[in-house]
Amino acid sequence: MPATPIPDIVIGRLPLYLRGLAQMAKEGWEITSSQELGGRLGISSAQIRKDLSQFGEFGKQGTGYDIAFLIEQLRRILKVDRVWDVALVGVGDLGRAVAHYAGFLDRGFRITALYDNDPAKIGGQVARMVIQGTAGMVDDIRARGVRVAMLAVPAAAAQQVTDQLVEAGIQAILCYAPTSVSVPEPVYVQYIDPVVHLQRMTHHLP
Amino acid sequence: MPATPIPDIVIGRLPLYLRGLAQMAKEGWEITSSQELGGRLGISSAQIRKDLSQFGEFGKQGTGYDIAFLIEQLRRILKVDRVWDVALVGVGDLGRAVAHYAGFLDRGFRITALYDNDPAKIGGQVARMVIQGTAGMVDDIRARGVRVAMLAVPAAAAQQVTDQLVEAGIQAILCYAPTSVSVPEPVYVQYIDPVVHLQRMTHHLP
Q1: Phi then psi for B11, rounded to 5 degrees?
Q2: Deepest in the core among A64, A81, B58, B192, taking most CB within 10 A?
Q3: How far is CA B10 from CA A118, A200, B105, in A?
Q4: What is the pLDDT of residue B60?
Q5: Which of B84, B93, B178 sits opposite A100 (nearest CB)?
Q6: pLDDT tens column, A107-138
Q7: Do residues B81 and A205 touch, judged by C-beta distance below 8 A?
Q8: Is the CB of A14 less than 8 angstroms away from the CB of B188?
Q9: Are B36 and B44 in contact (CB under 8 A)?
């Protein structure tokens, strides 16, 4: 690992590289170039070479990248060469869709616990998991040693649930609620808000 | 509007500023500072001042930003001072959740058409809209003049549907499928993939 921290914006592109490479591997490719990968991802080949060079020499001049090797290195750097247990809070329409999403496991994550505060939902099953009440959530998450959570609760509840997750020892939160939440260092938060992405595009439309 | 194009990374932060300011306005605030807004969003005040200065002088030294005015300006810059019709393709678990999401309308977007290729779903209703088949999708989108689409289909179908959307005149696509799609210039694509966000955080976890 490098001595100086890698800029977060570089780290943010690595999952895209990994996803693109995994797709190429699935299609039967064994070797690729920064041009080829960049063409698929809409990222310049110079950017890809520069990003990857921060972690050492992955490609050889003239022969390209060994896809399987690069996948292995990226998985190690992103720490998804293991499987992280994930707690999902909020089992409404969106939470249900997330719980059913089949794309987590082979990319490093496994939802292992569902929580909701709706008495009508508690005890019910989604994706072969029993929905638990939020009342015992802090103790339960702590007992399970879960460190990653996804938040699919309404905006108004997001901060309160976030505080509970932090108390429970959660260190990374993916927030689907359309609001910003405060967390103490060194807890990480990422947001998924479709409107933020849509607005980023409409600016450019004629 | 400025003569030189604003870097896309700056444009990408404006929806976050808009969301934060809208939340403050809802809470009854009228004036804010880059420090206050930055504290909420986890973005440095210097970054906020620098970003906003690209569009002109929104704040006055010492008196802060007028929230209502800044919201109005950001909505104009992002072109969400209007409402964009949105076509949603793929009405599985996720598409259904997206169709029911109440947070679009007051932020510039309105889902007005649903499409799916599953005969069992076509003709059914979700969120008071009738699901239409993908067979007539291109003509239908063109006739409606819709320019923004959301894609909630499986990864394997994403490129084919994207090609159809482009043919129909769609100029901005928000892709929920965990894959990269190719579009011709000047069509815009943004991606929502929870694993990409999760992997960006696990890198940092001890």
Answers
A1: -55, -40
A2: B192
A3: 40, 10, 24
A4: 65
A5: B93
A6: 999 999 999 999 999 999 999 999 999 999 99
A7: no
A8: no
A9: no
pLDDT for residue A1 is more than 50: no
* Sheet strands side by side (includes A31-32): A31-32, A64-66, A59-60
Tokens of B130: 């009738």
Is B148 in the A-facing interface, judged by CB distances under 8 Å?
Answer: yes
| pLDDT profile of chain B (206 residues), mean per 10 | 71 93 94 92 90 77 85 95 98 93 92 97 97 97 98 94 98 93 92 94 94
Give the type of residue at A60: K
Q: Which residues of A touch B203 (CB under 8 A)?
A: 11, 14, 77-79
Cα A120 to Cα A105: distance, rounded to the nearest angstrom: 29
- Quote the ipTM score: 0.93
Chain A residue closest to B5 (CA)? A204
What residue ranges in A22-147 does DSSP mark as E strands? 31-32, 59-60, 64-66, 84-89, 109-116, 125-126, 129-133
Q: What is the pLDDT of residue B2?
A: 47
pLDDT at A3 over 90: no
Distance from CA of B39 to the nearest CA of A (A): 9
Which residue of B lies nearest to A94 if distances are taken between CA atoms? B97
Task: Give the dihedral sign, CA B142/B146/B147/B149.
Answer: negative
- The whole-angstrom separation of Cα B175 and Cα B157 is 12
Q: What average pLDDT is seen over chain A?
A: 92
Strands A188-191 and B188-191: what pairing? Answer: unpaired
Peptide bond into B186 cis (omega under 30): yes
